[in-house]
TrEMBL record:
Domain Enolpyruvate transferase as annotated: residue spans: 6-422
GO cellular component terms, semicolon-separated: cytoplasm
Protein name according to UniProt: 3-phosphoshikimate 1-carboxyvinyltransferase
Pfam families: EPSP_synthase
Organism: Candidatus Syntrophocurvum alkaliphilum
Gene3D superfamilies registered for this protein in UniProt: Enolpyruvate transferase domain
Upper lineage: Bacteria, Bacillati, Bacillota, Clostridia, Eubacteriales
Length: 427
């Protein structure tokens, strides 16, 4: 699929973006190993989430799918069954990494694989600590899927210092540690999204965070919950930036999750001079939520690095678009994790924004952007990466001439309604 876009009228009114992908994944997986029937309301209808649902189905979990909610008959921590075929994780790294932790402590054999993109993403960061816990894990070059796991009911607790800040790796080890024979301590180099910890605590798990340490004691059961998934700030990010860079825009994005471990983008944009306000702040399903009000702003350059990077790692491609309109030189460093996403997002962000007139230069662990830039239409590649496709679509709103985005259907991986919501917001 190819999408053709041109520069835009202002974005106005109120919108609701898709539900949070990270919380939807975790709601499915955690409810599947709870004792009894759990519900996940307002889940994300996307390819990634259905990959997780299909994998849990193959592990013997009965999941009733309705448009509004998932009704999941949890099998308990010991009730999953050995799958009779390969677990297909599609394009979802979250599915593969989190499921590794679940499978590690179940006494059966399983194999996970995915599409060509996922099967070339590094998995050693999960494989090595699971092996330390006593799990037999086999992978292509000991790093890439397909991954075979011979689980065990006698895995060891672990004290592990994550070499890279990764919520997926942290969550995988937490899930494995639920059934270990001793407590586990996981130490992060910087705080990452804490949805797993919040949700497990609600389910009765003995898990606590002290600074950058997560301490977990094994449990016998998890209590099923009714999880309510807020709107995804990673999806809202595209519309936040769109309203900031398209003259005359004023947009309200309703009930967005603003968990501090995910809201780094808002903090950076405020520092750049963005007109962003939070209203109607509340707690829904254990997560902080607010309406985000955004209007067109003259942005100024900024430098970002260090501990804030994990809180906006998924938003860096769209942040580069905002930086392209800002006065001065912006710099992002400490973001080498971008190179092992669905594509090398440092390389793809830089190469495609350069095509449309952005003065952006690739660094080993980030990029620099000199602005403001006058954007021009061009034929660009999404690399079948949903966040690259959406970032380029937002850039097209202020570009002169037509922008043709190849493989734009990639947005369905995380945000199938993106195009419809974008069209509805342009007045």
């Amino acid at each position: 699929m190819k999408s053709v876009l041109t520069n835009s009228k202002p974005l106005k009114g109120e919108i609701t973006v898709g539900p949070d992908k990270s919380i939807s994944h975790r709601g499915v997986i955690l409810s599947s190993v709870a004792d009894g029937e759990g519900i996940v309301k307002n889940y994300l209808h996307s390819e990634d989430i259905f990959s997780t649902i299909n994998c849990m189905n193959m592990l013997g979990v009965d999941i009733k799918i309705t448009p509004e909610k998932l009704i999941i008959k949890g099998k308990g921590l010991n009730g999953l069954k050995e799958p009779n075929q390969v677990l297909d994780c599609g394009n979802s790294g979250t599915t593969m990494r989190l499921l590794s932790g679940v499978l590690a402590s179940n006494k059966f054999f399983s194999v996970m694989s995915g599409d060509s993109s996922l099967n070339n993403r590094p998995m050693k960061r999960v494989i090595e600590p699971l092996k330390t816990m006593g799990v037999q894990v086999y992978a292509r070059e000991d790093n890439y899927a397909p991954i075979a796991i011979q689980g065990s009911e006698q895995i060891n607790g672990i004290e592990y210092r994550l070499p890279v800040a990764s919520a997926q790796v942290k969550s995988s080890l937490i899930l494995a540690g639920l059934k270990a024979n001793s407590p586990s301590t996981i130490i992060e180099p910087a705080k990452t999204r804490d949805h797993t910890e919040r949700m497990l605590k609600a389910m009765g798990a003995d898990i606590n965070q002290e600074g950058l340490q997560i301490k977990l004691n094994p449990v016998d059961e998890l209590k099923p919950q009714e999880f309510i998934v807020p709107a995804d700030i990673s999806s809202a990010a595209f519309f936040i930036v769109a309203a900031l860079i398209v003259k005359g825009s004023e947009l309200k994005i309703r009930e967005v999750g603003i968990n501090s471990t995910r809201a780094g983008l808002i903090n950076v944009l405020l520092n750049m001079g963005a007109n962003i306000k939070l209203e109607n702040e509340q707690i829904i399903g254990g997560e902080p939520v607010a309406d985000i009000i955004v209007s067109y702003s003259q942005l100024k350059a900024t430098d970002i690095s260090g501990d804030i990077i994990p809180t906006l790692i998924d938003e860096l491609p769209i942040l580069a678009v905002a930086m392209a309109t800002a006065e001065g030189e912006s710099k992002v460093t400490g973001a080498s994790e971008l190179r092992v996403k669905e594509t090398d997002r440092i390389k793809s962000t830089c190469s495609e924004l350069q095509k449309i007139g952005v003065n952006i230069k690739e660094l080993e662990d980030g990029f620099t952007v000199k602005g403001p830039n006058k954007l021009k239409g061009a034929t660009v590649e999404s690399y079948k990466d949903h966040r690259i496709a959406m970032s380029l679509a937002i850039a097209a709103l202020i570009a002169e001439g037509e922008m043709l985005i190849n493989d734009s259907e990639a947005v369905s991986i995380s945000f199938p309604e993106f195009w419809d919501i974008l069209n509805s917001a342009i007045k």
